[in-house]
Amino acid sequence: MTQRSDPKYFFTAEEIDRLIHAIDHGESKSTGRILVHLERRCPITDPLSRAIKIFQQLGLGDTHERNGVLIYFATEYQFFAVLADEGLNRRVPEGFWREVRTEMEAHFAKQKWLEGTLAAIHKIEDQLVKFFPKTSL
Fold this sequence. Notes:
The protein contains 6 helices and 3 strands; from the N terminus they run ααβαββααα. Helix content is 50%, strand content 15%.
């Protein structure tokens, strides 16, 4: 096992800071919630099924507008999935999630894990801000 396959080392501390900043930025402008979850191994063969379970465990389906999003990684086998709740799924353009996944895969093929994840976060943020803007009272 390489150190990179250990979720503790998949992203550097600086990369984690950049991810947190990107997520915080998106969440500050919308009512949506974005989480990135890493684990070493996907205990089942389908990363999307695993992402669904984690999505539920983390309470992402509990957002008021059903607009939570999970970016899931199983680092050892480099599996990933992006899962959004029904509130966001109903509003994004057809093919949006395929576009997100394709862009992530293009970065990941070059071992650009941070860039692929940030690209996904930014695309998701754009949709969350468009459909679920945070309004001040």
